[in-house]
Every structure is written in structure tokens, then in C-alpha cells.
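Table S5 (text form). Sequence records supplied for joint modeling of the six-component complex.
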Amino acid sequence: MASKKSVPQKKSTLSIGAAVPHLPWQERPKGCADILWRYDSNPVITAGNVKNADAISNSAAIAYKGGFVGVFRVDDNTRLFSLHTGWSKDGLSWKIEQTPIKFKVGKNQPPVVKGYDPRVCKIGDRYYVSWCNDFHGPTIGIAWTKDFKTYTFIENAFVPFNRNGVLFPRKINGRYMMLNRPSDPGQTAFGDIFLSQSKDLVFWGEHKFVMGRRRGWEKIKIGPGPVPIETKEGWLLIYHGVFDSCNGFNYVMGAALLDLNEPWKVKYRSRRYLLAPKAPYELAGRVPNVVFPVAAIVDAATDRLAVYYGASDSVVGVAFGHVGEIIQWLKEQKDLD
Amino acid sequence: MASKKSVPQKKSTLSIGAAVPHLPWQERPKGCADILWRYDSNPVITAGNVKNADAISNSAAIAYKGGFVGVFRVDDNTRLFSLHTGWSKDGLSWKIEQTPIKFKVGKNQPPVVKGYDPRVCKIGDRYYVSWCNDFHGPTIGIAWTKDFKTYTFIENAFVPFNRNGVLFPRKINGRYMMLNRPSDPGQTAFGDIFLSQSKDLVFWGEHKFVMGRRRGWEKIKIGPGPVPIETKEGWLLIYHGVFDSCNGFNYVMGAALLDLNEPWKVKYRSRRYLLAPKAPYELAGRVPNVVFPVAAIVDAATDRLAVYYGASDSVVGVAFGHVGEIIQWLKEQKDLD
Amino acid sequence: MASKKSVPQKKSTLSIGAAVPHLPWQERPKGCADILWRYDSNPVITAGNVKNADAISNSAAIAYKGGFVGVFRVDDNTRLFSLHTGWSKDGLSWKIEQTPIKFKVGKNQPPVVKGYDPRVCKIGDRYYVSWCNDFHGPTIGIAWTKDFKTYTFIENAFVPFNRNGVLFPRKINGRYMMLNRPSDPGQTAFGDIFLSQSKDLVFWGEHKFVMGRRRGWEKIKIGPGPVPIETKEGWLLIYHGVFDSCNGFNYVMGAALLDLNEPWKVKYRSRRYLLAPKAPYELAGRVPNVVFPVAAIVDAATDRLAVYYGASDSVVGVAFGHVGEIIQWLKEQKDLD
Amino acid sequence: MASKKSVPQKKSTLSIGAAVPHLPWQERPKGCADILWRYDSNPVITAGNVKNADAISNSAAIAYKGGFVGVFRVDDNTRLFSLHTGWSKDGLSWKIEQTPIKFKVGKNQPPVVKGYDPRVCKIGDRYYVSWCNDFHGPTIGIAWTKDFKTYTFIENAFVPFNRNGVLFPRKINGRYMMLNRPSDPGQTAFGDIFLSQSKDLVFWGEHKFVMGRRRGWEKIKIGPGPVPIETKEGWLLIYHGVFDSCNGFNYVMGAALLDLNEPWKVKYRSRRYLLAPKAPYELAGRVPNVVFPVAAIVDAATDRLAVYYGASDSVVGVAFGHVGEIIQWLKEQKDLD
Amino acid sequence: MASKKSVPQKKSTLSIGAAVPHLPWQERPKGCADILWRYDSNPVITAGNVKNADAISNSAAIAYKGGFVGVFRVDDNTRLFSLHTGWSKDGLSWKIEQTPIKFKVGKNQPPVVKGYDPRVCKIGDRYYVSWCNDFHGPTIGIAWTKDFKTYTFIENAFVPFNRNGVLFPRKINGRYMMLNRPSDPGQTAFGDIFLSQSKDLVFWGEHKFVMGRRRGWEKIKIGPGPVPIETKEGWLLIYHGVFDSCNGFNYVMGAALLDLNEPWKVKYRSRRYLLAPKAPYELAGRVPNVVFPVAAIVDAATDRLAVYYGASDSVVGVAFGHVGEIIQWLKEQKDLD
Amino acid sequence: MASKKSVPQKKSTLSIGAAVPHLPWQERPKGCADILWRYDSNPVITAGNVKNADAISNSAAIAYKGGFVGVFRVDDNTRLFSLHTGWSKDGLSWKIEQTPIKFKVGKNQPPVVKGYDPRVCKIGDRYYVSWCNDFHGPTIGIAWTKDFKTYTFIENAFVPFNRNGVLFPRKINGRYMMLNRPSDPGQTAFGDIFLSQSKDLVFWGEHKFVMGRRRGWEKIKIGPGPVPIETKEGWLLIYHGVFDSCNGFNYVMGAALLDLNEPWKVKYRSRRYLLAPKAPYELAGRVPNVVFPVAAIVDAATDRLAVYYGASDSVVGVAFGHVGEIIQWLKEQKDLD
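The corresponding C-alpha cell record, covering 2022 residues in total, follows.
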């Protein structure tokens, strides 16, 4: 059971942005030294929320009008996927719409309806959805909405093959910026994080390399997770890294701090992982050994953080932490080789 | 605990065939909308039934003399496999013979003793076993018995490489017919369903293509499961489909309705899966994420259906359904893309 | 230039069958110790023979009405293939028809027109063509003709995946027999030779294993080549074997002697190869390092043999030998390990 | 020896653009029915042109100031590659600079010096070079020059992984357009052609799918070749297609006609190949069986065409044709399946 | 809860060596017929024992000064590994040092600190550690200690690529002997057991083949496990074998009896496995389906045996058995094929 | 035709060792700037030298009693290989023995007869042969002879998997030293050069890493070639490097200079290759695109060098150079990146 009582107002926080006092929250359990800790009633979302669903997993939630809204990856029992809008008052109990989002394209063209691994980013008064689209191969689709009822598609902004497109929540130096992970048409046994720039979200260029794979938990590939969190010290990026064994991939969560003005510059990066598959619903499921972070909601007034992540491509879990603690933890790892 | 009390006699059924009033059975649990539902005391068979066994999994049960008999895939603790006869009164509690079946070949030749994934099909007064034999590579072996004590092998009816040979329970147009799935010597990352014909079960030809892989849960390969169930509307085929991820294969169950007289013609086919690995004994085991349907027993008087399936190549589970409901569910999916 | 003058009539020959005095022929060059030697004006057939052809390679020639006829594998400049009839007086200079063979199927069904690697076998008064067809994957197609103008297809006699179907030129023990090499849908890095039996060329069964890969030039796979040559000592089979290196496959020619009445029994088999790629047109071309034997014409009166083989999947070459010498050479290798 | 005498001025041509009367040229040989025919003194450029070179292959030539200039792919004897400027009066005999091109990047940044497979496209008074760059993986680099002495790099216009960036020689609908072939970091066993748009050559978007692989000579992947040739009927695109065998890839040349105003629409496309490896310098070399078209020079006054292509990744060859004939040949294939 | 009460002193034992009366122990559960049975409070060691650890798995324990000491494989939360010393009184509850072992190399050279899968072997008064080192690829490192505080490295005794180096606990015929499993730099889908000899533990030669893969549970590869146990009948070797499925590898435990004086001669070998993954902590974890035996402690006075094994590359389990029973069980399998 | 006339005696040479005035030799052709140039009558050895041979390729020649002797890799027409002794007066025309070398093993054991890629090294009055043996997988075999008639095998000195064992021609610091390249059982897509040490050629240890792959012509793997050549400036090592393309491997020749006393230290190493496949017999053959250096004979009086190399795994070629020039050329590359 989630408790909201015990949230003290911290005097000084690092987070920049709105207060979200109704953020889902549980204090760190006693005896636990983890930087990020799981909600004790995980998973918060399962296939049961949508008729004919096989799984609801890698999904994006965001604060909206005093409650929460989200774009959810729903795999149905054909084992194909689409995106659905969902609504919640407390960020834990969700009502997900039974029919998929239809992204409006141009006149006389059919809407786009397929996709997976959505992110939602508010820029100005629009909410942008970026996800893995199928434009003759997996690549990033972008659309926007103001009301989470009508979504407008921006014509193929990326060529294949790309995944994990993650926008920054404001223009920087007059440009929209998007993290992304160039890939291939298959299961992609490689991958580094790049940053692309645009003046209009339609044409993209001046691409930058941000960071690449490293040994350990991120030796196969990495990809950006939630929309970066603006703090006084830089953009806090939670990302996933992949490790392999003779029995497949392990998806694990890590973090980095990017420069505020030149966010392709990495100030700190975690040698240690933030969270790795340990809970039963993370270890077993459609794709065993996966935690895949997709959204992060921050209460800037208190630095409290709730991370939404997909588990084993089957369900959604939530984990909690403090923005300031994570940044401190990143700094402590500076000299780790 | 299985209950047989609550089985009402339906006025009109679609199934053609014998009544099997002692069919193992449980009503659909309240609140469950699944077309096929699991027996609540699954798994019904585990390795403990046979000495030195490592696993008893993909196995075929059939009604026989007021009870049930079956041919079981037993992997022993050398991790090699053989087929064993088993007996049951209620179809749930089984006594499996400790020594493998020895299929008699010709004079002065050693019997065939190895194999896996058996099906049992009654045609006339003979019970035919078809299974994955090793004739210089995996292929389909066929043998017959009348008493489940003596089994006679039919000389190499198929060249390698083939698996999942499934006979129809009667001649059609004067010919025996067998579904099969051509494959390769390894783990076979492809596979479609064909139908072969014979006048004598010895020489086979006039092969037909029945159906191929499709996207979604059956994108890697498909293979026929239990002996097709004759109904007024066609042959109901339960089959398996395979989906892959970065962490291996998922084996899932689906269904199709084949034309009664030209059973290579597919009338309906499920876009949705019937059953996918969700239970702990399906998600973890020797081969995680496997449900593999092998036998179906129907009580034609009531349309009730019990499906025997291997789970995670480790144990045997049973699931229940109604033939008429499944056919209705297939029809409802007609327009799904 | 081929010379036919110097052909002495041998007193006693091993070959059984018709005299073919007009067999293309050149004596073994001086100083050459090879068992099989190349025609000095090879290649005898190139793409130039057919308009829009890219290559004419693995093809079958047979003596016919005082001259020769053949079924040719023509790859056109779309890089797809079909079979064409061709005619020759001397077996060296050929006129190949510009349009592909259309194999008649049943009523209201389109003819079969695609395929490759044909063999032609005379049984009684019919000429049977067997080739690699595409019936939802590569497998053996069979058709017959009497005049090489109209060809009638026998409905799918084999399920996928099979290649190199080679008929025996007469019934044995009342059964048609066909050598074949079960394979897979791709480029098949394995393969052994089997024999299948039929009473009517429609239904096939009682399959036998004939011989498998061995180390050396045949370590990856083997497949039957020309129609077996009947001799007093057994069926002489010329076959191909495949060796691999870091730079791909080498296709090489070898031979075996099969039992006359039970032709799945191997009496002798060559440890040494008969012919390997050495000539420039064998070493370079569309697929380098390939000699692929497809047809053998024997003059039974003199034991002379002409072998037609595809070279580098690009052209057709001819090589010559003496049946008796080859059998003697096989016997000499009996003790080679 | 190349002859320029026999070039009649055709009354009406399809080509749009400048006359290039000094185009290298040889008439089609007698008896040759090929649409494209090779220069009889091929290869025109070999490694001998540059000190320490291992190979000079996939290179771009263009008419310039009454002669020709080009950007050449030079692999040196470390087996790494760079681009070199080269000069020629007749387009056949070339003087290639000994030192690589250094593409100027921004202030205080080192120049870009590595790359391969360049194209050169004149738009207005600038010559744009597009090539396969290494920006944390293979992708398209773009630079421009006016004098082929100083080249200015446009900051990373594409994310990895992409190859074969080919610009159109003018803006269309106010936008620069570039064909490209998304790929992967390795040897890329897949690939289709896309078109990307830009208002400034810096930011790219509104990507379109142009055409994909098909069976036959282009079954593995395709990629655009020379800068498209503007004609009254559309943009003539010469492209490469790749076919595979057990012994590797064959690179082959084909053609398509694209819509003038919406060049992502394919009006005609060749079922047949234009040119496949047949000459010794195409069949053997560092990478056997490769013809790779990179540049096409057209004399619009006469419709004559000279295609520069890399052969076996070792040398440069030239082939000749008539633009009108090629378009006619494309139309004739309209009904080929 | 482990109980030590019920250990009867057997009159005659097969084991040669010291009594270890404080051996961790539980009697075989009632109704259990297994030769090796699990400790009922497994796992005995988890990641919680070391700060920042992700897993503690394949580790070696040995009796030492009335208690136990061990060398532990600790994977930290960077997902890199090192070896740590650990101490225990009862062999079940362990205190593991927080910092890794630093193996001293020569003067002015940095210590070796990385590695995994250690074994510990007492020879004379030294304790030798052998493990998988990284000397330009995985290979066997050897070091020695007397006090488990200071460890001295023996200069690169093996070239890459080798794993699972396991010393015999005394010289045989004047030579140190080490079992080992030549491998490759990756995940090694092959592997047989060899024996290497040395007069000084520095220079190695006169290598012998001991035993290779076989069908069944050991069809992919095998590798020696704990230090061989000396008995009156030979050296008892517990080893691992690997079986594969479409969903990855299964690591399983078996046993063999080696000749006392010529230990490359195999007297008996198990057709059946000793222990396969069945417990939840063996079926799911970082690498599902792994039991990996590393150490065996024997109480020679009673023939009791405790085996330490890594489970799912995540934790350490203990299993119990009787040396004499295992040898008897090996003999009973002599005629199994 | 080889000419020996024009060999001037150089005043000062770098080579240390015996004069070999009868060294096969041709001066560098006019206009040729290559550091190593081919004998103009290559190949010097072909399959024709041995009955039933398919190829004679990677072979080792050495000066002996005023002429030359060698150990030859002979692949016979079973496509298996063995080693044969050969004799020559001029090093160009060779008489190769018809029967393979039988390496004597211990009493009552069969001799070793298989192997490939031999090197021959004189140390003291013994000639050591090292080659790729098959001891349960490819590894290095060592034997010695004094008369090239009787060869004595040293018991399995290396565990699998290793290839290209190359001895130094004298002890260094009291130890025999051998270069080697750890590999795997297959075609080995990786490989670096190590150095192993021994006091007795039986037991080996204190292994050192010498050098690894680098980008360019040696990006896949490298391996030592001929026995290192002692010079005043260090050991001159000619080695092979492997480059890959979509059509397989290219084997190329390079060089390095190793420290005289600590030969695992690399003083200079070639960024450029010494010789790459360019001649027809190198580009086409059993394995296209291979030059594989195996032996080098130096006339220390004049610094002249003759290198014997296998070409396309089919024949033997010879190339010439000057030791001093090669070392100078290595130094010039010092600053090449």
C-alpha cells in the first residue's frame, strides 16, 4: 500500500520544474541502501487492464491537470502492439482506454496505429509523444497532443533504423533536442546514444554523439529512458544498458548527468547500475530479466522521483528515489574505473 | 480439485464423435473471460511419475475402455528421451510405465526406442502413434497398436527432416491424411504446416500446403498440435506458434478450422492466441516460456474439451474449453488483420 | 576440337544399356593420369545460347533419336531461373529454346515454370524430369514427357525441403526408386543421400539411408549427380561433395558403386575426388569453385562416359572417362581410410 | 582505344542538361545486344595511380571546365581508405592527387579525412560531395567545394547508420533531396532506398520510402548509384543490387525511372540487371564479383552516357549507353513479374 | 535449518584424507532418492553479503583451521567480477571481505585483481587458487597463499583460451596435474576436459585428453568442477555439462571416477546427471537454468560430502551426498549407453 | 627464369647468420617500387609434384647441406593433408617425396601423420618441425630430425586450440621460445600473437603477449609466419594478417621487428602490408585471396631474402627482398597511425 503521509518538504532541492505533491510515493524501506527502491505493490499495471491484452509494459506517465495521464504500450493477444491513452488520479491505479491511439497523418491518409516504447514530453503547451514506429523498419515517430484525445503525427522525422527517441522538455539554444539510439531492423546487439537537433521538429541535423557502450552492465547497448530531468547541476538522464550471457540479454537501469547547455556533454555517468532485475516479475515473463525505464515524474518541491519501468516486457513497475541523492551517487562514482 | 458435477448436457453440439462423460473437467472460473482455462491443480504430471526421469512433458492422452491411456514423452536424467505408455481412470492421475515403448520393426532388426512429442490417433480399431523419430535426423515415425502393449513400426514413412506429424482420425476421400511440419536438423527457426496423403500409411504423396507463419505470436514457426477434432463445421485444429525475443522463443497455442473434405483449406484461423505461458510452471523450467499442445479429448455429447499440453518442456498441464465457443471465437476474428 | 575417330571398340564392357556411338568424346590427353578428363574446348554451353540469359549451368543431357536432347537450367538477367529444352546432334553444340518449359499441372491450374538443377531419366518410353521445384520452399518436382515438347507435372511428390532428386532408370523389385538429399530452405550446410521408393511415382515411402558426409572433400554435404549408370557390378553413382573454407564452399565430384538390387547398399565409395575445380571457368564465375555433375551419357558398347557438369553456376562443361576404369579406381580405394 | 569520332547528333534526346561533347565514348561493339557495354580498355584506373595505394575503386567523376574532375576512393596498403581529388582531360586517363582530401570542419577542430564511396553532385555553383563517413559508425557525410581544392564539411547531417547518400542535382519543390540507404555497422545483409528532404542541407526530415529489395539480382539489398540523371520522362536512377550465394555476395547494376516532381515515386524499374560481373577484373580481386556504379556523365545533346563503376573493390571501369535506350528498356520490362 | 546430529560414523569409507567432522550437513530427506540433495535453506550466500554486490555465485570453500575459508566470485553492481576471501565457522554462514583479493605479481607490476570461477586446492602447506583470468582473453590464472591474506601470482601459466583450471591435491608421479577446458574468447559452444602436467607449476606440457562431450545433458560442453576427491578407487571428479535448447544453455552436474595414477584415464562416468536446475533460485536469476559445482568438502571419516555450487550465476547453494554412494552409482551406470 | 648473376656483395649487412650464396634470387624488376617482389615464374610448386595431390601450398624450406630441404603441406585428392619431405638444389625446382612423414611417437604407439602449415627451424644440430596437429582439436605439434628421414615427436606440448607455432632459431636467456596464435576449433575469426617459453621444449609457460590485431589489413587476426630472422637490430618477423569483406577473408603479409633479448617487445611494426594477393594464382584457387608466408631463407652475407608462401591454399610462390630494406621500411612507418 502506497503512503503519501511521510513526505517532508526539503529545504533546498536540485530539481527545476513544477511541484507534483500528489506524486506516487513510498519511503525507502528500513535497512535498504538502494538508491532506487521498488514500490511494494508492484506491478502497478498488468494485462488485465485492457481486454484481449497479453501485456502492458514499457509505458510513459506524466502529471496532468492535478492527476496523471499516460501513453501505454499494450501488446494484445495477437502479440502485436499499439499505444493506448490511460488516466489516473494517484499514478498507481490506472484506467486504460480499450482502443488504441490513432495518430492523424495528412489528408486522405490512414492514421498511424502501431508502435511501442512511447515517451511523453511536455514542451510549451503541447505534449509530444515519441515512440518506435514502423516506417519500413523500426524508427522514431513523433506526434503531439494537447488533450490526449487527438494526436497529430509529424511526417517521418527519422529514417530507419532508430529507437528510443527521447525529447528534452524545452528548447536549448533555440533548438529542439532529441536523444536517440541508432539501431538495426532486428534485435540489435549494439547501440550508443546520440543527440539530434531541430528548429521545427520536422527537419533534423547537427547530430552529436553523447555516449557509448562500456564494459559491465552496459556492454551490449544503451538507450535513453525517461525524458531528461532538469536540475541545477545538469540534465539527469536515466537510461538502460544491456548485458548478455549464454542465456540472453539482461536489461538494467543506470543514470548520467548531462550538461545543461550542451547536453551532448556527459558530466557524470554511473559505473554502477541503478536497478537490475531481481523481483520475480522482472526475472520471469515474456522476456525474462528486463527492467526498462520509460518515464520519470519529479516533484520539484521535494526532489522526490517516481520512475515507471517495464518489467519482463509484461507489466509496469514503479520505483522511487531522490533526485539529489542520485546526483550525489553519480559524483561518488567519478573515479571508478 | 477437479469437479465433474456441473456438466450440463447441451442440447446441440458441434462435435462429432463419441461421448466421453468421464472427461476431466472444471468449469471456467468466475470472472475469467479466457476461451481456454487452466486446470487449477496443474501440473498434472511431473517427473516424479517415473524413476530416473528428468521431465515428463509433451504427451498424448486418449479415451480408452472407459478410462484413459496415453503415450508420454519422458526425458530421463541422461537428458535423452523415450516414449512410455501410461494409464489413468480420470485423465488427471496417471500411472506411467517405468520402461520405454519398444516399437517392433522387421525381423532381425532392433526395435525403435527413442523419440519425442508423440500423438495418438484412433483410426478404425487401431491406435496410431506418430512422433519425432531419429532416422538419420529428426523425422516422423509412425506405429500402431491395439492394446498399448505391442506397437508395430511402419518402415520409415518420411525422409528427414520433419516434425509434428499429426494424423486425421479417419480416411478422407479414401486417403489417410497427416499434417506435418517440414523442418531442419537443428532448432528450426522456420516452419509451416503441410498435409500429406497416403492410401496405405506406407507410401505418401500429393502433399498440400495448409498454412504458414504470420506476424505476431506465430511469426517464427507453427506446427499442428492434437489430432484434429471433427465438428459439423470442419476440423478444429489446435496448433502451436512461436514468437521470438532477444531472450529466446515463446511457444503459444492457437487454433484453426479446416475444411471437412479438403482439410488443406483453412476456413478460419485465430489471430489471437488461445493460451500463452503465464503460469509459473510455464514461465520457468528446462525451456522457459513454453506451452505445447499435444492432445485434445472431446466429449461430443457436451462439446467439452480437455487439452493436454507440455509446459516448459518439464511437466504436463491440462486446460479446458468448449468446442463450440472456440469455433465461435474463430469466426469473430475473421476480420482481424 | 572434339575428335571421335580414335574410339576403339572394347571387347568386354561393364556398362549395361544402349550403344551411343555418337557420344561426344576425346581421348585422355598424353601425360594425364586423371580418371576423368575435361573436354579441351570447355565450356560447351554459355549464357550466349539464350537471349537475356545470365548463365546456363547445371543441366541434363540425354541421348535421343540419334542425337541428344536436354533440360537446361537457365538463369536469366533477373537472376531467376527456369528450365529450357535444348537439342544437339553431337552433344557439344546445342540449340536451346528461348522460352522456358511449362510443366502442365491439373485443370484450371497454372503451369509450373520455375526450377533448377534438372535431371532427365528414361524409364520405359517416358522421360522423367526431376528438379528443384519451389513448393513453399525448395523440394523435388517430377514431370514426364515423351517428346520434350509437352511435360506433365506429378502433383507435389515431396514435401519441402529436398533437393537433387535422381531417379533410377528402371524399376527395381517392382518399385521406382529415387535418390534425394533432404535439406533446408537456405544454403544448407549439411546433407546426406537417401533413397525413396514408390509403386506409382505419386506416393513415396520406405525411405532408406544410403550414405552420409565424410571428412575431406565431402565434409559439409553430398548429393547425387547424374542418373545412376547400370553396370554388371552395380549402379555407378557420380555425386557431388562439398568442402568449406573461410572463403566459402568448394563443390567437387566423386563416385560410388551401389548394389544392383538393393541400391541403398554402398559397395564402394571414392575416398578421392573424381574432379575438383581447377579450370578458370570453374574457379571464377557467379559462384566460384564449383563443379556440379548433372548428367552422364554412356556408350555401353565401349564403356565410354561423358559427364555434363555445371561450372561456377555459370556454364556447362563436359568431362570424359571409362566406366570400367572408374569402377576399378573405386575398388583400389577400398582400404583407404 | 577509345574513339570519339562516330557520335551522331541525335535529333531529339530525352536528357536534360549540359552538352558534354568530350564525353569518353565507344560505340556498342558489333553483335552486342547489351544495353550497357564496357570500355574495351578497362580498367581505366588502377592502384598504380597513387603511391602506396592498394586499390582505387568506387569513385565519382564529373565534367568540369572543359575536362573532368573526380573524387576517388583510394585504399592504401594499410587497407584503410581516404578520398583523393583527380583530374582528367578525356575522362579515361587520370592524374590523381597523392594526398587525401581534408574536409574542413569548424574552428579548432581536426579535418575529416576518412571515407569511401563518394558521389559528386553539382547544385548551383557548388559541387557537393557525399560519401560514407565514420561518425561513430558508418553514415553519410556531406561537404561542398567550388574548386576541388578546398572542401567544407557540413556538420553531421545524418545519424549512423547510413550509406550511399546521393543528392539530386537541383532543388525540387524548394527542397534539397537525397537518396540514401539506411544500414547497420557491419556488412549489412539488408537495405532499401529512402529519400530525405532538407531546406538547407543541414537539417533533414520528411523522409520517404522509395523502393525495396526484390527477388532475383537485388534480393539482399539495393542502394542508389550515380547522381540521378534528369530526363523529360523522369529521373533516371542507376543503382546496385546484391544477390547472395554460398560463396558470398554478387554486386550488380540496375536502373529505375523516378517521378520528376515526387522522386520517391517509381515509374519504372528494371527486372533485368544492366550489368553484372563478367569481366576478369570484376570476377576476381579484393572482393570478387562486384560492379558498383558511382558516377554517370551524360552528354545531353546526344543522350550518350558514360558510367563509372568500381570493380571487385579493386579498380575503376567505364561502361557506355544511351539514356533513351535505357528508358525504353525499362518500359519494356513493365509487365515482367 | 542444518542439523549435524544425525551423522553416524561409517565403519569403512572410500575417501582418503582428513576428517572434517564440522562439515555442513543434512541427512537425505525422507522419500528422496536423489544421490545428491539440496540444503533446505539454500541459497547459503547471496549478494547481500558484500556491499555493492550484484551476485555472489561460483565460489570455492575449503576446510581451514577448524573452520572454513573460501575464495568467492563477487559480481558487483557494475557487472564486473573479482575474487574475495570469505570466512565461516560452519560452512553455511559466511563473512566475506568487502575488498577484492589483489594477487601479487612481480616487482613494479600492478597486482592482478579481476577474475571469476575460482577453485582452491591445498597441496602441501600451500593453498593454490586457480581461476579464469584475463590475459588478453580468458585463460587460467594460478596463485598461492598460506594465510588467505597474501596471494602470489604465478606468471601466465596458460595461453588463452582456457577455463576451469582444477588442480589435483597432490603431485602424481612427481608432477603437478591440472584439469582444464580449452575454450575460446566468447561463450564457447564446445569444450572437452584435458589434463596438463608440470614439474614446477610454471612450465606445463605433456597434455592429455581426459574426456569429451557426449549426447544428453553434456552435449555442448563439459568442464571440471571441484578439486578431485581422492578415494581408494580413484579420483572422484564432479564436473558440469551443458545442454542447449532454443532458449539457451542448461548447466548440469555429473561425476566421473579417474584412475589414481594415470588420472587421464576414465574408469567410470555418469550417464545420468547428479543434479540439474530445479529449485527456483536455479531456474531464474541473472543466467537462468544454471547449477555450477565449484568446491567439494569431504569428511573422510564418514564419506560425507558437501558440494558448493553457483546457481543461476546469482547465488551459492550447497548439496550433500556420500562419496561411496556416488561411486556405487557410477558403477551401476557402466552399461548404460 | 631465375637469374643468380646479378647479386652484388653488400659491404655491410644487418643479417646475422650463415651465408647462403645459392639462395634462389631475382633482382627487383625495373620500375617496381615494392619492398617484396614476386619470382617471375611463380608458382614454383604445384600439385603436380606429388601423385594424387590436390594442392601443395603452405610449406617450409630451409638451406641444408649446400642445397635445400623442406617440409611441405600436401593436400591430396581426399582433401585431407599431410606433411612431406622435399629436396631441391636451387630452391626453385623441388622433388617431393610421395609418402607422408611419419612422426615417431613413443613405443607401441602409432605415428602422427596428419597436419598442415609446417615450419622448420634449426636449433643447434637439430631441425625442429612445428605444425598444426590434431590433438582433439587443432594445436601445435613439435618434432625434430637431423636427417629429414626420421622425425621424433615431442609429446603433446600444447593444449588445443593453437596454430602457427614458430620457434626462434636459438635459445634466448636460456629458454626456447615459440611464437603462437591461440585460436578455436573452427575457422577462427580472431587471433593475436603470443610467445611461450620452455627450458626443454616439453613443458611450456611464462607466456607473453606479443601483439594483437589492428585495423586495416590485419583487423580479423594475425599469425607469425617464417622463423624470425636474426639481425643486428632485432628479430625480423614476417607475419600474416587477415582482412574480411562480404566475400570472405583476404590473407596478407606484413612484418615487425622484435627486441633481440625480450622478443615479446615489438620495436617496429608495419602499418602497410608487405604483399597482398594480386597475382592470378593468389586471387583464384581453392581458397581465393590468400598469401600465407611460411619460410624465409636469408643469405646473411648479402642480406638477400627469399620468402616462401602459400597462394590460395593451392600452390607455393616465392618472393624476394633485402633484409635491410625491410627494416628501413618498418622504421619509416613509425609515425603512421
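Note: The mean pLDDT of chain D is 95.
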